[in-house]
Amino acid sequence: xxxxxxxxxxxxxxxxxxxxxxxxxxxxxxxxxxxxxxxxxxxxxxxxxxxxxxxxxxxxxxxxxxxxxxxxxxxxxxxxxxxxxxxxxxxxxxxxxxxxxxxxxxxxxxxxxxxxxxxxxxxx
Length: 124
Known about the structure:
Layout: E1 2-10, H1 16-33, E2 41-48, H2 59-62, E3 72-76, E4 87-95, E5 106-107
Parallel strand pairs: 1-5, 2-3
Antiparallel strand pairs: 1-4, 2-4
């Protein structure tokens, strides 16, 4: 079975190193909490809000050993008025035996506002 695994983070500035580092930390926690290995990952979509264009957050994954062949794509998030600024969202599709409600989604920094019901296992 494939399952979607959500994650999101924010940065303080539109700065490439900050975007890459916050994305790396987010991805590392997503895979650790869900016991995911690179071979389990079908693909990863990463979106950024329009105020982030200093770099590709997908570069973060290229720094993690074993992720060379994981397909990753960056894209622009839709520009909704009054949405959370400077936000990086991740949708990871993984092969797993876990049920949908067993997936542990991860939100860092201001992104905890996106799904407070899922923060710290809130839906379980």
